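Task 17 of the worksheet. Students: predict the tertiary structure of the chain below and write it out as structure tokens. Keep your answer in the requested format; marks are given for formatting as well as content.
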Amino acid sequence: MSSSAAAHQQEQRERVKELRKKAGIGKPKSLSIKIKEISAYEWNPGMRLLLENLVDGMRREKEDYDDTWVPESCPWTAEEMVGWCDMAQWRLAGRIGLTTDHTGKMLRQLEEDGWIRIETWNDPLTHTDHNRYQVIVEKVDANQRPEWSATMERGKRYKEGSRKTGKKNAGMFSKTNQPTISKTRQAIMAEDDE
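Model answer:
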């Protein structure tokens, strides 16, 4: 196939894609896919994985809730738990491969950033706090990447002014700023050369 024919085919694909997008034709994306395609938490896959696990653990709507397990002293019914994830924090931590403490910090950060709602209840029998989590779909929808392609814009990996962005500070080593060799080390090196 000639390059002009390939270019024409690509142009046609882009045109069809644009027309389908304008017409609203196409399969709607699941919440799990939308989370994978958010622009937030760039270079922080743990946060995205935690959000995905919250979606995976959400209780789904069904016709009959008679056999649905809900803790005996839980203030909500099975129907009221639909759309919420009530997975234990230790289980979430295990699924994303992080410590329970760090997972707790991440959950609080997601709540502060407006990505999830957290509701807590205390079991009077065991005196244990339990949480349920709800992903805020509107926040996910509002943070979708404007473009999803191999050439898409991505956020910066390092904060502006960090040492990775090229800003030097007095304590950084470079070709011109090297630590001095101690007298003892110089003597040992001189002895080795002999």
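Marker's comment: DSSP finds seven helices and two strands in the chain. Strands lie at 116-123, 128-135.
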